[in-house]
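Try it yourself: sequence plus iron/sulfur cluster, in.
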Amino acid sequence: MERETTTPNGYRFRLVNIECLPNSANFNVIMDLQETIAELLPYLAAALPGCSYTVEAGVINLMDKGHIIAIYPTYLTITDVTTHAEAERYCRDYFQKIQEVKRNRANLQPVFTRHPTLSPLDILRALPKTNCQECGSVSCMAFAAAVFRREASITACAPLVQEQENYRDLFRELQRNGYQT
Ligand code: SF4
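Structure, out:
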């Protein structure tokens, strides 16, 4: 499938089949920008929580609710969307984020290298690892992955919240990486 949508706002997007999963019902999105944002990337890197950015590579990467977002100077890619409406929403949101950063750039400290300091294993390490399922996940590993993908809040693990010290350290690290806690 390839269906292109043009918006009056300075971008257009198309849904494309996921090459490595030809039978998947989901799509990747390619969002083309009318104007380059090359100079804005270090400011976007400063403003987007949990992203990674290396200036030589010229791309910002981040996870957003299970989607991998890549931001290049003239286009963005968003993985694994299910519908055209979802693609439209993500494109609109990211275009708005870009416009916000453009407006606020004078108040942002540009960043030229940034890597997340937290992985799913770091989250797992802090969990009680009893697989009690109180959080609604089938295991602590599944819960750690869901938290990492920003699909679950760390506070859903009641046993961890009761372990004050581990909880405090992980909470601080999540905040440092831009997670909503
Ligand atoms: S509630 Fe906490 S300890 Fe229990 S399965 Fe979920 S993450 Fe593991």
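One thing you can check immediately is this: The radius of gyration is 18 Å.
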